[in-house]
Amino acid sequence: MNAALPGDSPLWWLHDTDSLGRLVPVAGALLTGVGGLRAGGSWRWSGSALIVAALVSLPFNAQDDRVLLSVPLGVAWLAWGIWWAMRDEVPQTA
What we know:
It contains three helices and no strands. It has one domain. The longest helix is centred in the N-terminal third of the chain and has 23 residues, at 17-39. Helices cover 56% and strands 0% of the residues. By secondary structure, it is an all-alpha fold.
């Protein structure tokens, strides 16, 4: 038992690297998706895809058929990257 995070602590998941390894990419996808939604225009579809795919991937488990729930998240990231690479406008810096 870890003295800093005992097993009965509500923060037990912070000590579990498997949970963090799953939640951190999902949180990143959610934040990127929200950024796409807030940017508006043609970014909305890819932002929406990232948000939906991130939420779908939450029950992911590599030990059974739920491993396939990671596929939509990968496809959404692929779509985001392709859309970013093919856009016409150049980002402006201040």
